[in-house]
Amino acid sequence: MPKLDLAAIPDIARTGYLPPYDALVAGRRNRAVGTGLTDFGANLVTLAPGAMSSMRHWHSDEDELVVMLSGEAVLIDDAGESVMRPGDVATFAKGVPDGHHLVNRGTVDAAFLAVGTDRPATDHCTYPDVDMFWSEATGYIRSSAMGGG
To answer: Per-residue DSSP letters for 42-65?
Structure first.
């Protein structure tokens, strides 16, 4: 049956981020709801009050779409800040160096659906505000180790 049993999907609260960035996403939980799909991935993400979705980042080879489901979060990107409420949608095109993330500045959980093309073999992720870079080949590393910063 195509309908997923959300209660049966693990609610995961972990990150591969390097210290100290790992602590900044504490309070983020993900449920992988793209089960069985091969062209894109999808996650239900819940942010506790004060939590970030990620460090500000952009992908070389992954389009992203976010649909706000409940609560409220602030989208922070290179253009500034935008409040995201239920029903709001944001998109991030692959290869566009516009660092973005969501922050829950409210007092209740915020939830959103994150959908991406999920191309780990060709994608890399740049974190413009911090000393971190990701690719499938390297995992999370210090961008300064690559001669960047």
So the answer is: EEEEEE-TT-BSSSSBEESS--EE
